[in-house]
Structure formats: C-alpha cells, structure tokens
Amino acid sequence: MPYLLFIFFVLFVGVYMVVWFLLAATARKDKLHERVSWGRRPHVSILVPARNEERNITRSLESIAGLDYPKGRLEVIFVDNGSTDRTVELADRFRKALRGSLKMKMLSVPVPGKGNALKDGMRHATGEIIGVLDADTYVAPDCLSRMVPYFKDASVGAVTNYVKPAKAAGMMAALQDMEYVFSSFSKKVLSTLDSLYVVPGTLSLIRKDVIMKVGFPNDTLTEDMDMAICILKSGYKIENNMDAVAYTAIPTSLAALLKQRVRWYRGFIENMVKHSDVLFNRKYPHLGGFVLPFSSFLAVFVGVSLTAMLLLSILDSALLSARRVLNVPFADSLDLLSASLGTVNAAKLFASPYSSIVYALILASSVVAVVAAFRLQNIRLRDSILLLPVYFFVYYTMIMVFWAVSIAAELLNARKRW
Amino acid sequence: MNIYVKAFAITVAVFLFGLFVGLNIERFMLSDLEARSSSIESSIRDIEIEMLYFQGLGGNESCTFLKEVVRSTNNKLDVMSDQLSSYNGKDIVFTSGQVAEVKATYTSLLIKDWILQERIKQQCNSTGVSVLYFYTTDDCDDCVLQGDTLMLLKGNLKDKLMVFPLDVDVDSSMVDMLMTKYGVESEPSIVVDGRLYSGVVQKDALKDIVCTGLPGASECA
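ok -> structure tokens follow
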C-alpha cells in the first residue's frame, strides 16, 4: 500500500505540472507571437566575454555585424578573459575588417571569471541598453530589433530571446533540439507570469540603469539565473520574445552534456539557496508561490528518489535474472521460455494494474505537453515523431540521473569551475 | 478562474479516471479468477462422485475416466496458479479482500485435489509423483528459481509429475497443518513422497528425487 501511495503521488504531481503548464501556455496565446514596436532606437552595447573560443568567436561577431539594427546605435565590447588560443587574434581580425562601420572595443581581463569580464566591459559601455552575448552563440539578423521595443515600458528591466541549438548532427543534437523546443517555449510562458528566472548569455538585453543597481553577481555557478532573480527583486519585469532567435553551441558528447548539466543544476540549487527569500513570498506570487518551489521539489524528487528507485530495481532484477540464467542451463531455458509463453493470460497483462495506469497517464500527459508546445509554436512534429520515444525513455532518464549527480555533488560540496 | 485551482480540478479528474480504469480491471480480474475457481470446484466434485461410484459400484473402467478428469483438473489448476502468481497482492486497491478469498479457496481446492490424487494412485495402481511446493511472494528470489526448476521438470515429465504450489501467506488452516506435519520452516521447500527438502533444489538433484518415484519411466533413463 505505501508503494501505491507513492506512485499515486508521483502521478498527481506529474499530471498537475503538465496541466498547469498547458493552462498557462494557452491563457496568453495572444502574447506568444506578439510584435512590439517602438519609435525610438536606443543605443545598445553588446558585451562579448570570451575565453578560448577560437572556433566560435568569428561566427558570433559576424552575427552582430549582420544585425538589422542601425549601426550608429550599436557598439561591440569584446572582453578577453584569459584566452590562450587564437580568440583575441580572430576578434582583432574581425574588428579590422569592420573598417569602422561598427564601433568595437577590445578589452582584456586576465583573471578568469565571467562576472569580472562583464564588470569591466560595463565600465566602457556607452549604450542605454546592455546585451550579453557569449562567444559560443550567434544571433539571427532581426533578433535585436525584435527585442529592443519591449524597453518602451519603463518597468521592463530585461528582455530575453528564443534559444535554439546551433545546427549539429547526431542523436545527441537531435534530442537537444527537441528539448530546447520545449524549454525555450516554457521561458515565454514563464515570462507571461512574471516568473522568468534566467537571463542567458544568448544576447539577453538589460537596461543599463538596472545593471548599475544590481551589478553582475558572481557567486554562483549560473550567474544568468542569479542576475534574473536580482532584477525581479529590484522590481523590474523580464520579457521574452519567441521570434527573436539566438543559436547556441551545444555539447555533442555525453561527457560534455553531463558537465554542462551538472553546472546548470548545481547552479539552480545554489541560486535557490541564495534567493530562498523568494520562496512563498507574496511579492512574487507565481515565481515564489509555485514555479521555484515546484521546480525545486521536482528536481530533488525526480533527481533523488526516482533515480534511486530506478537504479535499485534495475540492480535487483539484474541480479535475479543472472541467477535464473545460471540456474537453468541454456539449452533448457528455451524450453522454459516456451512453456511460460504458452500460458499467456490476462494476469500477465494486468499484473500490476495501477503501476501500468500511472505510467501510462504520466507518459500520455508528457506527450500532450510536448505536442502542445510544438503546436503552439507552429513547429512540425511529424518530422521528429520517431524521436519522441527515445526522448522520453532515454533522454529524460539521463536527465534524471544528471539531477541526482548534481544534488550529490552539491551536497558533497565538490569543486566548482566555470 | 485561477489556473492553479483549474489545474488541480483537471488533475483530480484525470486521477479519478485512472482509479476508475483500475477498478474495472480489478473487477475483471476478480471475476475471471472466481470463474476459474468455480470450474475447478465442479471438476473436483466430479472426481469425488466418480470415486464414490468406483468404491461402491464400479470396476476398472473407472480408473481410465478418473485419470482423464484428474488430468484436466490439474491443467485448470496449473493455469489458475499461473494467474494468481502474476496478480500481485500489493498492487490491488479495491478488491484485495476478495482476491485473498479466491486465493484461499484455490489453495483448499489444490490440497483437495492432491488428497484425491494420492487415493486414486493407490486404488488404480498408477504411477506419478506429487510434489508439494511451499513458497512465498514476499521477497523470495530463491522461490523464483525453484519455480523455474519445477516448471522445467514438469515440461520434461508432463503428466507423470504434478506440482502443488502452496503460498504460505494464504490464510488456510490446511496449509498450516501440512507445514506442521512435514516440518516446513522456510521457503522454498518441497515435499516429495513424504520427505522434506528445504532450500533450492537444483535441476539434477530434483530430477533424481522425482525419478525414484517413477521406476521405468523413459524420461528418467
């Protein structure tokens, strides 16, 4: 009976999350593809902090040059953060090729630390609006012009965009493509509830005044989340536009993905601790009342208990299966198999009715969520439909394990690196 | 309406739907088990009537008929045993009491069948080995192994071997009595020809034990 209560609880939580998300997503359908306009074109300074990004830096910088924003109102501030490869050389080459068509400053902050690099860049920034573009990300030409108009509203402190993985081949890339369709969409949904808690370095824009007030926090692993919450705490809004696209480099190997995710999830935990005053705080009804507590709960719950259960049951059945195979010699095991197959009956199908029902319902609701995310964004699901099972059964499980690893690492206080 | 409340309402609806489906599956399973149980009960009644006839009025042709009825009853018992062992008690919400009752009835029928078979063997001079197999579903990996071995041997010897699986957790005074009589203290345990063997009995050892009761059987060469 306790086992049943546990799985019923999991069902409730899982389905609730999906239903809430669908209701939130469809509540402000009008905002999903909104186009905001503004007569003004304020000056924008784009900070590009980089450390050993020789492979990506040129593409990033060229995408800034390709923006359809008036060049006279734009400046690039490249900040080298202790690169030992050709990054600086390539950036310089780019600057020279500009031939003054776009203002570009080149700074150097040798001590590694993105926060330091950004702080230094800020001191040289003349724009009213500051953008942060990581060197591994490039943007679509209309990205900036779609984002800036949101600042028309004086209460808007930051604007974020729609992040897609840069084109890459392989199963890992395809799975992440699918993941980002969902996660980038959910950023928009969260923004309609004043609950967007990340300003990623994919050309997120922040009002200069706000940065002066809030600074560039540097004491967590995911300063983009830290920054966002600090902005919200100082009373400003964070908007998101789904038609302003940025393409970011994604890890292509399992090891790289693990490293990235452990950093993200540990950063999430750190920020939850740092900003625990947001939780259940009336000032932040959706963010503090639901989004953050629920996400944390889910992360811990999924990360720890479900992973533990999964591993234990795999281990348990592996041991038993091994013993069974040893017990019955191979030649005889075929007889055994046919004997047991001979008695296919209802009991085998309904052996654990509630476990199957719960599993089926959670799976169904997850599929509904993904399908809805695709449909609301007018993206064709047909092409990726074969990927769905791999996504749910393999990728999701992997993410659960990554959460478990992150929580363990955080509890054991493992070494941290940027 | 507040999306939190709306989401809660929808989730509860989904939940109730799930329970509804579960309830119906349970009902279906229970009626299937009860039907099988009734069928076995009437088969055993047939055996009892035939034996009465045999003892009082009949001749040798009774043995042929009895062996046939016994065989079909044993098949039904095997299938139902399979059903019951898969349908696990820990995952039942609404009908667990009734399932426990069916299990108890089944166990009584099984034991009755065993007693009748032993008598028939005496009276008809037929060969065949009966194995009482005591097991539990509560954390017993060894029981799974023993089950595999018995099933394997049964595949080889077919009707010459009859296995009577007895779940020690079922509420049955007959099972308790048998356990006391043969000194069963742990699971898995098997009783062959009145002798107790505790722990997992490996395939070859089991074959030897069973074959001592089947002199001249071709499969025991």
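The two ends of chain A are 46 Å apart (CA to CA).
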